[in-house]
């Protein structure tokens, strides 16, 4: 069984790779179809950057990280919903709004 430090290292490498793929994908999409059509990709970069900040700088359990990540999921869901991926977009939109609602209620008390 893998130790906690090796799992943490693998997770960090995965997030770095995911961020690299998101940046390259956004660049290629914006060059091919324009920056407006690349909006879901740009929001995907925001979500990936938020995940990287949560992993490297703060904690994934930090309420500020969770709210920022949920805002990104909500924005990504809305952009996907309106650009053609309705099922995935609706799912991400519902998940993001649910997390925002629960975190908002938790932080308000």
TrEMBL record:
UniProt KW keywords: Membrane, Transmembrane, Transmembrane helix
Membrane-traversing stretches: 6-29, 36-61, 67-100
Protein name, entry field: Uncharacterized protein
Originating species: Halalkalicoccus tibetensis
